[in-house]
Amino acid sequence: NAGVTQTPKFRILKIGQSMTLQCAQDMNHNYMYWYRQDPGMGLKLIYYSVGAGITDKGEVPNGYNVSRSTTEDFPLRLELAAPSQTSVYFCASSSGTGVLLFGSGTRLTVV
Amino acid sequence: GQNIDQPTEMTATEGAIVQINCTYQTSGFNGLFWYQQHAGEAPTFLSYNVLDGLEEKGRFSSFLSRSKGYSYLLLKELQMKDSASYLCALGHAGNMLTFGGGTRLMVKP
Fold it and tell me: Could you report the per-residue pLDDT of A6-16, keeping only the tens digit for each?
């Protein structure tokens, strides 16, 4: 099992550009999450999903969109990138126990 | 809000014991979780408490008191590799976690 796989690992975007952060898990977990972590800070929930076809907003959803067409994949879309979206993005999944398994993260810089 | 508070930084000596506190202002949560995060890496699960009391897992233990709005993570026999950030998180319906800001622990020889 690969666990939770995130791509890309690093990306530099110009202001106003768009991109999709990919996340895939091979553990058949129903629950998936996107968090962002600013330097020296904790994790803030952007969006989450409790199963295929179901998504919901977290604490900081503005400027982002998600979809969950399959159990395995949970991509995060950034439209019109802004410097405030410079952060490390973590995808995570869970079987429902409350224990989250995180991917290795995507470091995004918006300039 | 849930206001999860942790000290920003702590320093301890190799071989010693350190206690990292976490306080919160909410009564509605399913469990309290602790994660470890080494610099530049993803968080990894350490421990959780659903009921009040102490949960022991090797060198790490976690304690919860719901009535006092308080939890701590206890690390014994500190090793240099324990230098990391420790994140306290509350679990909610929908299997969601809300994280505190984390405590950066530096272990010195």
Answer: 999 999 999 99
